[in-house]
Automatic annotation (TrEMBL):
Pfam family, any one: DUF1059
Record-given protein name: DUF1059 domain-containing protein
Source species taxonomy: Bacteria, Pseudomonadati, Pseudomonadota, Betaproteobacteria, Burkholderiales
InterPro entries xrefs: DUF1059
Top-level taxon: Bacteria
Length: 64
């Protein structure tokens, strides 16, 4: 099983967020990324947000 990650630096943002979130499962990663997007960036938890996060999800080692 390959580790998955989402890197906020790949998302358009005025805040220039540098957070990167990783997990072993897609479900766990999406849940953590949604919590971050809602609490830090002020997004609403919507199906569109979740789809967008799935679109930027990567597998393997995170870049430095």
């Amino acid at each position: 099983m390959s580790r998955k990650y989402i890197d906020c630096r790949e998302m358009p943002s005025d805040s220039k967020c540098t957070i990167s979130i990783a997990a072993d499962s897609e479900k766990e990663l999406i849940e953590a990324a949604v919590q971050h997007a809602v609490s830090v960036h002020g997004h609403e938890d919507t199906p569109e947000l979740r789809a967008g996060l799935r679109g930027v999800m990567r597998e393997g080692a995170q870049p430095n």
